[in-house]
Amino acid sequence: MTLDAEAAHRGHGGHGYGHGQDARKKSTASIVAEKVVVVAGEGGVEHPTSYCQTLIHLVKGSVGSGMFAMGDAFRNAGLVASFVLTLFIGTVCVYAQHQLINASNVVSRRRGLGRLPDYADTVEHTFRAGPGLFPRLATPARVLANVFLVMTQLGFCCVYFVFISSNVKQVLDDHIVPIDVHVYMAMALVPILLLTLVRSLKFLAPVSLVSTVIMCAGIAVTLYECTKDGLPPLSERRLLAEWHRWPLFFGTVVYSFESVGIIMQLKNEMGNPRDFSRPLGVMNVGSVVIGVLLVSVGSVGYLKFGDDVQGSLTLNLDQKSVECQVLRIGLCLGILGTFPLQAYVPVDIMRGALQSRLGKTRLSPARAELCLRALIVLLTFLLAEAIPNLGLFISLVGALSSSSLAFLFPPLLDWASRWRQPGGVGALRHATNALILLMGVLVTGWGTYAALVDITSALSAG
């Protein structure tokens, strides 16, 4: 999809995120009519993705560094508690994502769009049409949603730098003179930058396919390496950990499971968007696959290594084994291919503000976007240099921004979008929304506090 077409279909009111009331008055429908040329598929995108391609993107967006942090997550909650809570959190995440999609559909119908608005547009326009205080909070909620989206996706990208450099260092230190981990981060910068400059999800699909195959194979090999010599008995592991460690568990699981930052873009890029959220659609099928993988890696990792399990399970494997060294390098390549997908959302958000300023420069929209993508890569690289602990940073990102997007906004959107419908909001839905909202407040507040305390302790000790 071209830059102009992508900017048009997102419904940013012409120039993105709140750059004047005149821009807001111009309807997104008229912008779409003026700029978007329907080339293929129902979605009207230039390079539509198929069911399988979208499923690959969705699974690939979750099968990353967080997957290999699940052993550390299970350590923080205990074996049995982690198993039950992971399935529960996954179910709530999927339910909340359906709430988000439904609210976005309502906004799309009301505004006469042919596509779903993005996350921030959905928040703003749903709140604006809601009851009570909702309209007053529409603009701040939009800004907050964008901030959390950017934080979440950039947090993913930062962790990828740490994951790649840590694993490559562990392999190459056995064959060459030991080099500082930050040098390996710098070495990963060039290939990551080149991949991130690819602007279309359609063209990234082959990269995602290869990355997904590598990551799934890597998970299978990791599980084999952990189980080939047998696992300790359950009696040697905590079934229920101390309650004050649970917030770190919640943060890691939400980080690993949550794909709310990319689902709107993925659905909009499909040739047949209805295939995304139907009962056996991309979202449900992909979530089941992701949930099974999370539980498998977490339970086996904690069973095998107990309290010694690290923020990435690969770091626990035999450093001298050729198979494990090949595994680490392969997983690094898989993570490398995931980076552009995670960077897609912050580029999408920041591009709106960037376009409003292009009139003051001689820079073309395409070149401006390429510069923006390069700046995002450099920013995440610099932030990654300051991360003291991979596992704790994953917990912080998951608790602060991912939990807010997953559990705080969707129930509010559901309330605001349904209040005008015949029959209003039923008691059961009220109770469900309240439960999800309460869960979001607890996970976000408690998890962020616990992660910050542990990160501060790590910095003081280091």
From TrEMBL:
Single GO term (MF): L-amino acid transmembrane transporter activity
Transmembrane segments: 77-96, 143-164, 176-196, 203-224, 244-264, 285-305, 325-345, 366-384, 390-413, 434-452
GO annotations of cellular component type: vacuolar membrane
Name the UniProt record assigns to this protein: Amino acid transporter transmembrane domain-containing protein
Disordered: annotated span: 1-23
Keyword terms: Membrane, Transmembrane, Transmembrane helix
Organism: Megalurothrips usitatus
Ranges where the Amino acid transporter transmembrane domain occurs: 47-451
Compartment list: Membrane
Topology within the bilayer: Multi-pass membrane protein
Superkingdom assignment: Eukaryota
The keyword Membrane is assigned to this record: yes
Protein's UniProt keywords contain Membrane: yes
